[in-house]
Design brief:
The chain is an alpha/beta fold and about 475 residues long. The protein contains 17 helices and 24 strands.
Amino acid sequence: MGAQAAGPLVVGVDSSTQSTKALVVDAVTGAVIARGQAPHTVSGGAGKESDPRQWWHALGEALAQCGDAARQASAVSVGGQQHGLVTLDAAGAPVRPAMLWNDVRSAPQSERLIAERGGAAAWADRVGSVPGPAFTVAKWAWLKANEPASAAATAAVRLPHDYLTERLTGEAVTDRGDASGTGWWASSTESYDAEILAHVGLDPALLPRVALPGEAAGTVHAGHLPLPKGALVAAGTGDNMAAALGLGLRPGRPVLSLGTSGTVYAVSTHRPADPAGTVAGFADARGDWLPLACTLNCTLAVDRVAALLGRDRESVEDGGEVVMLPFLDGERTPNLPGASGLVHGLRHDTTGGQLLQAAYDGAVFTLLQALDRVLDADAAPDAPLLLIGGGARGRAWRETVRRLSGRPVVVPEARELVALGAAAQAAGLLLEEDPAAVARRWETARGAEYEARPRDEAAWERLTATLADGAPLLRR
C-alpha cells in the first residue's frame, strides 16, 4: 500500500486486449494507493480470440497484487476493450472464445449488413456509426454464418466489460458508451434497435440492460475476489469512454492517443453521424457523445520501419521530400483494408533518418486528417491537443504532432487513464458526483505543455497529394 488515503477507496479496472490492470485510488484526492496487473493471451492466425475466463482470473490476480487496499474499497468499476463478442450458455459459461475488436474475419458480414440496411448514410443516421468489421453486430453475423451451432447454443451476449461486471454483481448490465460500439444500440433512440436485432437473428432478451449514467450495476457478490462483499459496482464502460472520463474531458477538447493503433476523439454535446464512416458516433459514459476515429498503423508501424532501417526510434532527421504512408496492416482510416505501405519521392540523397521521419509524418497525418472530422462547433481551432498513449512519451512523436497540427500540445503525467477513468466513475457513484468533475479535481490532465509551432504546410500538401495519387495502388 502506497500513499496514505484521505478519503474512501475505489477500484478502477482496465481490461484491455493484452492485460488487466487494477488501481486502488483515493476517491477524494485521486492518489493511487496500490496497483496490479496480469496478462491475457490472444490467439494468433486469422482470428483474434481470448477466453473470457482469462480476464476474470487476471482481474483476481491484479486485485491480489493490490493487497489490503483492494479489500478496503467501497466501489469498483470496469473499463474494457470495446466491441468484443462474448457468447455465454445457459449456465453462464463461454460457448466459445470471445472474438476481439481486431478480429477482421467479419469484414464480409460488415459490408453485407451496410448494404442490406440502406447503406452507410442510413446506418450513420440511425445508429450513429457505420458498422465496420470491429463492431459486435458484424461479429455476431459472422458467428451465425460460420458457427451456427455456437450461435444456437448462446443464451447471453455480452461485451468484455459486461462479462466482468456480471461476474462481480450477478447482474446483466452494460452502459450506453460501450453499447454504442455494438451496431445494435441506436444513438438516435438511445436504445437497442429491434429491427437490426431481428435482421441479424439476435433475441433482445439475450442482451444486458443499459444502465443510465451514474446508475449502479449492483454490488460485489463474488466471494473469492479480494474485494469487500457489498461494495458498489458502477456500470463500467468501454476503454475509450473510460479514458475520456479519466481526463475529465470537457466538450471540444481534442485527444490524440498514440498506441499500437492511433485514436482521435473529443467529447461533444452534438450527436455525431458521419455518413462516410470515418468517425464512429459513440456515446460517452456520462450523457454526451464521443465521436472517435481510429487508425490501425501507429506506434507499431513506425517502430517496424525503424527496425528495418536499423535505427533507434528517436533518430529522425529533417529535410528531404520523401513521403511514406505506413499502412503496414491495411488501414481503417482511410478505409483501405488491403493496403500496404507506400513510399514516394526517394532520392540518392535521402537519408535513413529522413525516411524514418516520413513514417512518423504519415502516421500523424492520418490521425490529424481524422481529427478534422471528429471536431465540431464545440471545438476551438487552437485548443491544445492532449497527447496520450505510449507514443506520447517519445520526442519524435510529440514534435511531429506539433509540426503537422499547428496546435499547442499537453502530455498528461497520468498514464493509466482507462483505469483512472473507471476509478473516477466508481468515485462518482460513491460520492454522487459527475465522474468527469471528479477526474478534474484529481487534475489527471495536468502535464508538460508545449506551445504551438507553425504548421508544416509543404509536408501536409505532399502527404495529401501522395494519398490521392496513390489511391489505385492502395486499393489494389
